[in-house]
């Protein structure tokens, strides 16, 4: 049977683009995108978020230096900060599309739905592929409560023309904590409503409690064990009623209760692709229940974190699988993750929870490093680092960092973990002094 393309990729985000670029040299490839070329991360995720974060962190650093020569804290001009962000995001879709054109990759704008295992409908067109890759990402979950239409999402937040005075977030995961930090630093009154007693469930509780205290001192109001049960929009305000019997008037409320895979429009059950609540069901080769259809990135049900680098790893892996360059199951390196919350909380490798349960196997070293040269210089008195070492081999296998610029230290730790570098070799190199990396030899 002749197909229009060797491989058709649904979704032009980090995952889908990695497949297309990976196969372009050897195959006829088509990418289909229903919204903005580039996907979530550069248009309304990681990249714009971190541009705003850079500005609020600069303000925070001035505050840290108040006793050290910078007495006046600056105010954030929201509209100029947003213009700075738009200066980047506005170019993403056209830049991504130009890249595809330059590479000679066919691309089509429109929403795809399966007709059968090899055929997709996009508007009034049909296209077929020997292989099809689902890389459709995820979208915010909107809690199903009375008045839910009043919820805004992270995408709305990252496009706010003006900062509302009083803001609420439902949920206390990555999105809520990162955006709450930006909003409070920019001058809003911020309320976080969390249905249980845990913030940032992917990180160790002793660390999340420290971060929660730091954010509370900045002015974030945490309403723990509190469900928002109804919203009532009154003019420019939204009244949020909680199951504690309270109600609070806000100028905006954001759903930050997780993200669900973008699968509704694909007709997956219609053609027999197995789906779970967390995403498309795949095997260890990222094949769906129909072997010619693969799924990658945020659209997949999986235990590894749903992050941009993971979508990229999976996209490159599926490209090499389809190209016949590999047939081994996917293997993930140590994947670091960070919440950019001023300071950053980052972790990689074996979790503190798992290491604590197995003291015969792991050595845990927990250090308050605020007085170390690096963190004293940054006036980061709350800085804290935990390393987890595998006792038999003496190798670093996990780490948690709460600090200004934690991303740098966690990147160094990830490198050591990925390459299985023993302690003596970890010190056998010459990083810039003084720098975050020059502390590495002192941790384990
Ligand atoms: C606010 C926010 C901040 C984030 N910050 C970070 C961070 O700091 N670091 C990090 O690593 N990750 C971060 N993430 C997560 C990161 O954005 C995602 O993990 C990443 O974008 C997933 O890539 P993907 O290619 O799987 O999906 P996406 O980037 O979501 O791309 C999927 C694409 O498929 C398209 N699509 C969907 N359905 C169809 C269809 N039927 N037909 C055609 N096209 C379709 C969508 O329009 C979308 O463009 C953040 C996410 C959010 C929301
Ligand atoms: N820095 C980063 O790497 C980064 C930043 C943002 C987002 N992301 C990615 O996006 C994903 C989604 O982020 P998120 O913050 O939306 O999800 P999340 O899974 O991190 O957090 C969701 C939060 O909502 C709570 N919740 C769930 N249902 C609820 C309900 N009905 N009412 C109230 N609270 C409820 C959960 O307990 C949790 O605290 C992340 O898991 C991550 O993969 C990553």
Automatic annotation (TrEMBL):
Q: Could you say which protein family the record assigns here?
A: Belongs to the class-I pyridine nucleotide-disulfide oxidoreductase family.
Q: Which InterPro entries match?
A: FAD/NAD-bd_sf (IPR036188), FAD/NAD-binding_dom (IPR023753), FAD/NAD-linked_Rdtase_dimer_sf (IPR016156), Pyr_nuc-diS_OxRdtase (IPR001100), Pyr_nucl-diS_OxRdtase_dimer (IPR004099)
List the Pfam families hit by this protein, alphabetically: Pyr_redox_2, Pyr_redox_dim
Residues in coiled coil: none
| Domain annotation Pyridine nucleotide-disulphide oxidoreductase dimerisation: ranges | 335-438
The answer to whether the entry has keyword Flavoprotein is yes
Query: Which residue numbers delimit the FAD/NAD(P)-binding domain?
Result: 5-311
The prosthetic group or cofactor this protein requires is: FAD
Q: Which UniProt keywords apply?
A: FAD, Flavoprotein
Q: Which PANTHER family match?
A: GLUTATHIONE REDUCTASE (NADPH), MERCURIC REDUCTASE
What is the protein name stated in its UniProt record? NAD(P)/FAD-dependent oxidoreductase
């Amino acid at each position: 049977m002749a197909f229009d393309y060797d491989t058709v990729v649904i979704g032009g985000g980090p995952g889908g683009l990695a497949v297309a670029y990976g196969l372009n040299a050897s195959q006829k490839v088509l990418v289909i995108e229903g919204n903005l070329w580039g996907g979530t991360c550069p248009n309304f995720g990681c990249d714009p978020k971190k541009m705003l974060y850079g500005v609020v962190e600069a303000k925070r650093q001035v505050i840290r230096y108040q006793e050290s020569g910078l007495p006046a804290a600056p105010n954030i001009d929201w509209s100029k900060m947003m213009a700075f962000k738009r200066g980047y995001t506005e170019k993403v879709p056209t830049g991504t599309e130009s890249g595809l054109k330059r590479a000679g990759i066919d691309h089509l704008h429109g929403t795809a739905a399966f007709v059968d295992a090899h055929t997709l409908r996009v508007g009034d067109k049909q296209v077929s592929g020997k292989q099809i890759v689902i890389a459709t990402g995820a979208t915010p979950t909107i809690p199903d409560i009375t008045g839910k239409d009043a919820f805004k999402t992270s995408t709305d937040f990252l496009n706010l023309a003006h900062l509302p005075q009083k803001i609420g977030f439902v949920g206390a995961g990555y999105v809520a904590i990162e955006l709450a930090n930006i909003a409070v630093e920019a001058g809003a009154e911020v309320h976080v409503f969390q249905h249980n007693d845990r913030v940032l469930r992917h990180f160790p509780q002793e660390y999340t409690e420290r971060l929660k205290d730091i954010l509370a001192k900045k002015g974030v109001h945490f309403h723990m064990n509190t469900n928002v049960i109804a919203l009532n929009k009154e003019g420019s305000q939204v009244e949020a009623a909680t199951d504690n019997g309270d109600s609070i008037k806000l100028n905006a409320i954001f759903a930050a209760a997780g993200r669900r895979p973008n699968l509704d429009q694909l007709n997956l059950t219609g053609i027999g692709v197995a789906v779970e609540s967390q995403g498309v069901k795949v095997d260890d080769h990222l094949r769906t229940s129909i072997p010619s259809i693969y799924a990658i990135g945020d659209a997949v049900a999986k235990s590894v974190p749903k992050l941009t680098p993971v979508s990229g790893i999976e996209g490159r892996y599926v490209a090499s699988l389809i190209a016949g360059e590999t047939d081994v199951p996917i293997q993930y390196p140590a994947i670091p993750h960070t919440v950019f919350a001023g300071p950053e909380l980052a972790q990689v490798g074996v979790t503190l929870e798992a290491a604590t349960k197995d003291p015969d196997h792991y050595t845990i070293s927990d250090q308050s490093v605020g007085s170390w040269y690096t963190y004293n210089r940054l006036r980061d008195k709350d800085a804290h680092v935990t390393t987890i070492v595998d006792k038999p081999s003496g190798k670093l296998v996990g780490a948690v960092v709460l600090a200004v610029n934690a991303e740098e230290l966690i990147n160094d730790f990830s490198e050591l973990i990925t390459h299985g570098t023993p302690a003596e070799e970890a010190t056998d190199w010459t990083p810039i002094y003084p720098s975050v990396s020059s502390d590495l030899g002192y941790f384990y």
